[in-house]
Amino acid sequence: MFEMTALLRQRFAALRSGAEFFSLRYVQQSQQQLSVRKNVAEPPFFFRDEGAMLTVRLKGVEAYAATADLSQSGLQRALEQAERLAAQTGARALLDLSEQPVATARSDYRSPNLEQSMPSLADCYDLLSRESNSVPADDRLVNWQASLGISNVEQIYLNTAGAELRQAQRFVYPGFAVTAFDGQDSQSRTLGRENFGQQGGLDVIERCGLVGAGAKVADQALQLLLAANTPSGVRDLLLMPDQMMLQIHESIGHPLEMDRILGDERNYAGTSFVKACDFGTLQYGSKLLNVTFDPSIGEELASYSHDDDGTAASKQFLIRDGLLLRPLGGALSQFRSGLDGVANSRACGWNRAPIDRMANLNIEPGDQSLEQLIGNIEHGILMRTNRSWSIDDARNKFQFGCEWGQLIENGELKGVVKNPNYRGISAQFWGNLSAVGDASTLQVLGTPNCGKGEPNQVVRVGHASPACVFSQIDVFGGDA
């Protein structure tokens, strides 16, 4: 772990530059993806990547260059390239960053249980094969797959102000999916789709539900085949955590990214219905809505000590009692906007510059058990596990579909329904939040594939949420 530290220190100290400030961010990533499909082991996928980003500040202008050549001469060439870019763009610079503070901290961060050895390749395939083979023999079960992804990331940040920030992280992604087909209709059921990911080791596999998933997920897929279509109309909507994470991601996370609000993402990922003047004044949701940026939950995918610009990360309320307080904006966006943000300046790798990204974006628990949430609904529907999403460029009008639905009548769960969908407008939907589950309903989830930026960057994002109830929501089935 951190084997490159001494060498990078030596080479960083030997770099020569006329810039008033420069930094080096080294990233090494490795990944393995394993799967067993219909009881047949598929070839493993392996990936490894390593390089460094050099950033300079020259007469108040910042520029960067990246290289996979980590030799002394390779790093020096990248630094000089960054200097040339800063000099060339100086006359057109929109911002003078001369007085922008830089990182000075020295810190190490490690994922929980990083010292644990992970199962061997053979043991992983044995686990996946056992679950695959547990799917019952039924002609309607036409496809199924057990999967396990493991990623390791090591990062070292050095700068001329004396900062040294090291992070070693391991990310684990278990999965199981089954598709059933009866000749007319097909239905799929998954173990949280691809959205069960956490930092850690064997503990992630133990708590994700992969063990025992084969028979359970297959049975639910068959139940969906036999289920009636979701009825259309206005109902109370109980969203479970694996659907809440998509709702949070799309209609809170992306709208609050400050670079969107400033217009930077307009050409690619869109803008936001939120305006800079809304912070401190906009009632984003009901008084039950409390949303935090929280990098301190060790197992969550985007937990870290410092962001990729070296800013220390701490828990902050973005929305408290429904009132919008601060954006998802890193140091540069804070400087541009004059608003307090969070430490969420993040890059997907060594050859990308940090931009404003979601990290761990969570809803704080309320005070009702799942039984209480269900018991207080007279006419409603429970939905789990996202399977489709559509939302406009401003992240306001949306339509989402789920894998699993169950009707709720007079405080009791009733039959399973298939093709459950709902729609709304972000600016109104969160105002209809009428009940928030307690800590017993909370689940820590996350996605490895949130895309944004030009050139594109795909990053890990964490979402922890309790179950939540929304009043009088437009729901509909697959025929609507």
What does this structure look like?
This protein is an alpha+beta fold. It has helices at about 5-15, 70-90, 120-135, 200-210, 215-225, 240-255, 260, 330-335, 370-375, 425-430; strands at about 20-35, 40, 45-60, 60-65, 105-110, 140-160, 165-180, 185-190, 200, 230, 235-240, 290-295, 315-320, 325, 345, 355, 360-365, 380-390, 395-410, 410-420, 420-425, 435, 445-450, 455-465, 470-475. A hairpin with a 2-residue loop joins strand 13 (about 315-320) and strand 14 (about 325). The radius of gyration is 24 Å and the shape is globular.
Key features?
globular; 480 residues; 9-stranded mixed beta sheet; 25 strands
Backbone structural class: alpha+beta
Radius of gyration computed on alpha carbons = 24 Å
Indicate the overall shape.
Answer: globular
Q: Tell me the strand percentage band.
A: 35-45%
Question: SSE layout and pairings?
Answer:
Layout: H1 5-13, E1 21-37, E2 40-41, E3 45-58, E4 61-67, H2 72-89, E5 106-110, H3 121-133, E6 141-159, E7 164-181, E8 186-190, E9 198-199, H4 202-208, H5 213-226, E10 228-229, E11 233-239, H6 241-253, H7 258-261, E12 291-293, E13 316-320, E14 323-324, H8 331-337, E15 345-346, E16 355-356, E17 361-363, H9 370-375, E18 379-391, E19 397-409, E20 412-418, E21 421-425, H10 426-429, E22 433-436, E23 443-452, E24 457-465, E25 468-476
